[in-house]
Design brief:
Number of helices: 7
Structural class: mainly alpha
Radius of gyration: 32 Å
Number of strands: 3
Distance between the termini: 73 Å
Largest sheet: 3 strands, antiparallel
Strand content: 5-15%
Helix content: 40-55%
Oligomer: single chain
Strand order of the largest sheet: 1-3-2
């Protein structure tokens, strides 16, 4: 049972005129927007529709439905990972390096977001790269 807007609140022009009549006596003339918001919120506060309308007006309640399945664009088998790990190992042939220096040696900024970190972790797990200290790496035994 939805009510029309006129039933919920008076038209703004009528409210402004009414407010100006009251404000003329105190020398004001400005419209108190907080009073207007309180009146509007109280008018339909109990209905679910009014709640949804208020949430949307304030940027909340942004859920939705899509009939399509979502998924990652990355395959489970990452074909570039072994090549990246090998580049890391080869870069450590010149000696130990900090994480930042290693990233510079292999030009990791061109790999894409998160690629360097994931490849370095894979290299450490496989034993091809060893962590020697805080943020320092050297070639491993494997």
């Amino acid at each position: 049972a939805q009510r029309s807007l006129e039933d919920v609140a008076p038209p703004l022009s009528a409210e402004d005129a009414d407010h100006d009549d009251h404000a003329a006596g105190d020398g004001g003339g400005s419209i108190d927007l907080r009073d207007r918001e309180r009146e509007m919120a109280g008018a339909g506060a109990g209905t679910a529709t009014a709640t949804r309308q208020r949430e949307r007006a304030h940027g909340q309640g942004g859920y939705g439905y899509s009939p399509y399945l979502t998924g990652s664009t990355y395959s489970a088998e990452d074909s570039a990972r072994p090549r990246e790990v090998q580049r890391l190992v080869s870069a450590l042939d010149d000696g130990p390096a900090t994480r930042d220096e290693l990233a510079r040696r292999v030009a990791a900024t061109t790999w894409g977001p998160g690629r360097f970190r994931a490849s370095l972790q894979a290299a450490v797990r496989s034993g091809q790269v060893r962590r020697t200290g805080r943020g320092r790496y050297e070639r491993g035994d494997a």
